[in-house]
Amino acid sequence: RRQRQMCIRDSPEPPFEPHTMFLLGLFSLLDALLGQPMENILQDLPIQEGMKAALTTRDHPFKPWIVLVQCLEKGRWQDVQNGCQELGMGLEETARLYNASIVWTSRSMPQ
Fold it and tell me: What is the pLDDT of residues 20-77, one digit of tens each?
């Protein structure tokens, strides 16, 4: 779901193309899935340096996209509101896109 949420953002302009945003969302879970530090995982992956930086650096300009999705997943609504303001996004549009990502994920998962 996170990868789809990152991909379908349409306002404002995301920092990467939709397919790259999809990968950014997917890769943002690798450290938890593999039980390794993100820096170690990314060493051998042939991905853009900007994307590596977004996944490993706290103060990177692309980091707010990942943080916003994490806050949505955890139900941290005040942080969602703050993240939307930081990215210039409306709460209603963000909720619509998040719900669309949930529907897409549920349809994509085998029954």
Answer: 777 787 888 889 899 999 999 998 889 888 888 888 877 777 788 888 888 988 899 9
Round the CA-based radius of gyration of the chain to a whole number and report it: 14
Residues 79-108 pLDDT 10s:
999 999 988 888 888 888 888 877 877 777
What is the residue whose two structure tokens read 């949420």? 5
Q: At what angle do helices 77-87 and 91-108 cross, to 10 degrees?
A: 110
Burial of 38 (0-12, 13-18, 19+ CB in 10 A): middle
Q: Which residue in the block uniquely carries the two structure tokens 């490993």?
A: 56
The reply to whether the predicted model has a pTM over 0.70 is no
CA distances from 41 to 20, 23, 32, 46, 55 (A): 17, 14, 11, 11, 11
Give the 3-state DSSP-derived string for 47-91, with helices as H, strands as E and coil as C: CCHHHHHHHHCCCCCCHHHHHHHHHHHHCCHHHHHHHHHHHCCCH
C-alpha 9/C-alpha 29 separation (Å) is: 18
